[in-house]
Amino acid sequence: xxxxxxxxxxxxxxxxxxxxxxxxxxxxxxxxxxxxxxxxxxxxxxxxxxxxxxxxxxxxxxxxxxxxxxxxxxxxxxxxxxxxxxxxxxxxxxxxxxxxxxxxxxxxxxxxxxxxxxxxxxxxxxxxxxxxxxxxxxxxxxxxxxxxxxxxxxxxxxxxx
Amino acid sequence: xxxxxxxxxxxxxxxxxxxxxxxxxxxxxxxxxxxxxxxxxxxxxxxxxxxxxxxxxxxxxxxxxxxxxxxxxxxxxxxxxxxxxxxxxxxxxxxxxxxxxxxxxxxxxxxxxxxxxxxxxxxxxxxxxxxxxxxxxxxxxxxxxxxxxxxxxxxxxxxxxxxxxxxxxxxxxxxxxxxxxxxxxxxxxxxxxxxxxxxxxxxxxxxxxxxxxxxxxxxxxxxxxxxxxxxxxxxxxxxxxxxxxxxxxxxxxxxxxxxxxxxxxxxxxxxxxxxxxxxxxxxxxxxxxxxxxxxxxxxxxxxxxxxxxxxxxxxxxx
Lengths: 161, 318
What we know:
Chain A contains seven helices and no strands. By secondary structure, chain A is mainly α. Chain A starts with a helix and ends with a helix. In chain B, 47% of the residues are buried. Helices cover 68% and strands 0% of the residues of chain B.
């Protein structure tokens, strides 16, 4: 189980780096999907199968599909790849690398004091539903109002065409 | 023969059976279509055309596997692999019989939905990477169709999940011991049936690959075994949808004890496969906008009302 965790974590990190480095937008998107699926595996290993499968359905299966849908209609060709290449210069790496190094140092400092024995407790669908419609019902309602607003806005935009 | 859930022998047998069924359906479908349309169908190779599938396979394996020079090689090559793997992975959670299955998962229904939504990438990437206008049109249609019908597919299943009180497909089958869910969830069944056909883009909802309008849609540029994978994956998807309907609405392996459970499962699933083939022979293809309007303005409200009514009934009988 712990090996699976490290494997998925390594895939997630490498795939996310590849998203940044990739100049072909469709390939970049595929790496992002891979990264999301790796995160879903991490959730599963840590005992949250519901979160894992939602990650796959919502992020990898719905949001990224819409991204790809938009890319398909934009008809981006070779010139965007060249543009990407000129944007990603070595100088641009300096400041983000320093900031990332600081964060990495802090992270290593924090996790060096932790006992690595993880004993995942399984959180089922029932427990999550009971929490969502119990203590967190206000958040659920607010999210649904936000979605309704989005729906009305989309309807309006499509109508005025 | 002692089979148990998740043993390598069981997993191997399931994989073998599913792929063989998918491949055999190529011939069975053509024979059945011929029967229903009062013509002969392929009957030359082997006994009543039973070896036609071998001839088809030899043809498909020996064809030139051509990658167009203008295509995006990476996406072009992985696209048929994605659909084949997600369809086969979905079979992991299907309970074929009390002792036959790959895993006994508490998120079975959701896993199937997740795999179905990942399947959309295959047709989208296939069409996009081909760099062909017909392929692009086909994959645009496919993407919109699959994303839309996923929604109703998911909501139509929630009635069953609420009645059984579980996302585990095995528990859903066991909960149907005193009555199949086809009776309390008839509307859910009809919506799932329609959404299932749209999701596997079979006729009459094969709008992404409508030959008369856009050549072969997203797989216009594919040939050889890469086309074969799209082709077989469609049939395996048909087996998957039929198995899911059997499990969710028709009591899975449950049936009178004079036949073993796996035979009951196979009979029910084959009944639905035959029904889907009959639908192909009988129902004309709708227009693309008709399909989308029908989905969003009719199926979505209907599935929500079905869920609401189911919820009210469950609460009032408790």
